[in-house]
């Protein structure tokens, strides 16, 4: 009898654990306002891409259409070149997404932390 009660307690503990996992998988970002709009995504490892957000899920997996990858310098993987590569429809794995930003209102600025020699 004691083993059955212990087993039931384990089941109940697992049941509440499942609820915690479901809550944890909720996205902290509201990407619905960016659906059908151009966004730029930075990935772990330095890759960057821009495209139209077609869909997403709570794990931050993204579906981008008309995607363009910004190519990197072979000598410095974190330096982007002016070259791009058209990718089309892409599924981006959420675990590799580092940053998401809208394309409208985004502009490049000079780095204020670089000291000018001269």
UniProtKB/TrEMBL annotation:
Basic and acidic residues: compositionally biased ranges: 1-11
Gene Ontology BP, a term: mRNA splicing, via spliceosome
Record-level GO cellular component terms: catalytic step 2 spliceosome; Lsm1-7-Pat1 complex; spliceosomal tri-snRNP complex; U12-type spliceosomal complex; U2-type prespliceosome; U6 snRNP
A GO molecular-function annotation: RNA binding
The keyword Disulfide bond appears for this protein: no
Pfam assignment, any one: LSM
Location relative to the cell: Nucleus
InterPro entries (alphabetical): Lsm7, Lsm7/SmG-like, LSM_dom_sf, Sm, Sm_dom_euk/arc
Keyword field: Acetylation, mRNA processing, mRNA splicing, Nucleus, Ribonucleoprotein, RNA-binding, Spliceosome
Location of the region described as Disordered in the Swiss-Prot/TrEMBL record: 1-24
Ranges for domain Sm: 26-106
Superkingdom field: Eukaryota
Major localization class: nucleus
The UniProt record lists the keyword Zinc: no
Family per record: Belongs to the snRNP Sm proteins family.
Binding partners and assembly: Component of the precatalytic spliceosome (spliceosome B complex). Component of the U4/U6-U5 tri-snRNP complex, a building block of the precatalytic spliceosome (spliceosome B complex). The U4/U6-U5 tri-snRNP complex is composed of the U4, U6 and U5 snRNAs and at least PRPF3, PRPF4, PRPF6, PRPF8, PRPF31, SNRNP200, TXNL4A, SNRNP40, SNRPB, SNRPD1, SNRPD2, SNRPD3, SNRPE, SNRPF, SNRPG, DDX23, CD2BP2, PPIH, SNU13, EFTUD2, SART1 and USP39, plus LSM2, LSM3, LSM4, LSM5, LSM6, LSM7 and LSM8.
Full protein name: U6 snRNA-associated Sm-like protein LSm7
Organism name: Papilio polytes
Upper taxonomic lineage: Eukaryota, Metazoa, Ecdysozoa, Arthropoda, Hexapoda
């Amino acid at each position: 009898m004691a083993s059955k009660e212990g087993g039931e307690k384990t089941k109940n503990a697992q049941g509440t654990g499942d609820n915690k996992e479901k809550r944890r998988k909720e996205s902290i970002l509201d990407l619905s306002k960016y659906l059908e709009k151009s966004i730029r995504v930075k990935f772990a490892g330095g890759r960057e891409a821009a495209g139209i957000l077609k869909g997403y899920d709570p794990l931050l997996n993204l579906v981008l259409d008309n995607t363009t990858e910004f190519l990197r310098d072979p000598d410095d993987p974190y330096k982007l070149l002016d070259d791009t590569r058209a990718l089309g429809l892409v599924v981006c794995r959420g675990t590799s997404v580092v940053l998401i930003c809208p394309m409208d209102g985004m502009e490049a600025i000079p780095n204020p932390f670089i000291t000018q020699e001269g």
